[in-house]
């Protein structure tokens, strides 16, 4: 079969959806009917908006398995109503069992945080906490061999910081206490396609788990 030519990106995604819907229905005629009855994901996934990291794809998951929030550099701010509302819905109402914050290598946000270039008012404000991490860990970062290594380390530090912010969310505090909700930090290596589970901040071995009293 000759490849189909598309005039623009919108035509490509609409046509792609039709292929997806047809193939999925052929494999499981009840798949979409089941999805339409509701959702019960076990994981809230907080990731970066980077187009190279579609969480369902890289985790080999199906629709309905991950409840997702994505933004620039997977950063969780204490005053971010958008993220807070996603967290509250996922934790208090969907009753997810785990929360994942996933950063990644080659992250544009982490790389931009290595310097103080003017990115525009909104991005400057958004990345301010990540740039503060760079300043706080200046000595450690300067010992790394190049900007790729520094950016990757900033991405890890940012995951830890985002989890610290999440630990203060009332719904998360309650769920940890009442039903053992766990928080996990991960880094996705774009060049290898692999996820790495991070240690707890401070180097303590924890299999990626954080709890409210750490």
UniProtKB/TrEMBL annotation:
It catalyses: hydrogencarbonate + H(+) = CO2 + H2O. One of its GO terms (biological process) is cellular response to oxidative stress. Zn(2+) binds at residues 48, 50, 104, 107. GO terms for molecular function: carbonate dehydratase activity; zinc ion binding. The keyword Lyase applies. Its EC number is 4.2.1.1. It is an enzyme of class 4 (lyase). The keyword Lyase applies. It comes from the Eukaryota. Reversible hydration of carbon dioxide. This is Carbonic anhydrase.
């Amino acid at each position: 079969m000759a490849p189909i030519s598309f005039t623009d990106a919108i035509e490509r995604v609409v046509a792609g959806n039709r292929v997806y819907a047809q193939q999925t229905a052929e494999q499981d005629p009840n798949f979409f009917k089941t999805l339409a009855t509701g959702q019960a994901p076990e994981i809230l996934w907080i990731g970066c908006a980077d187009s190279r990291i579609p969480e369902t794809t890289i985790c080999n998951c199906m629709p309905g398995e991950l409840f997702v929030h994505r933004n620039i550099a997977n950063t969780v701010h204490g005053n971010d109503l958008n993220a807070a509302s996603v967290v509250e819905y996922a934790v208090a109402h969907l009753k997810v069992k785990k929360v994942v914050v996933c950063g990644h290598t080659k992250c544009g946000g982490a790389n931009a945080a290595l310097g103080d270039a003017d990115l525009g008012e909104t991005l400057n404000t958004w990345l301010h906490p990540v740039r503060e991490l760079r300043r706080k860990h200046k000595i450690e970062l300067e010992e790394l061999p190049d900007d790729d290594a520094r950016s990757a380390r900033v991405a890890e530090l940012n995951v830890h910081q985002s989890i610290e912010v999440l630990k203060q969310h009332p719904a998360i505090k309650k769920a940890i206490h009442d039903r053992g909700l766990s928080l996990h930090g991960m880094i996705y290596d774009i060049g290898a396609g692999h996820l790495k589970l991070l240690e707890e901040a401070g180097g303590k071995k924890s299999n990626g788990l954080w709890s409210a009293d750490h």
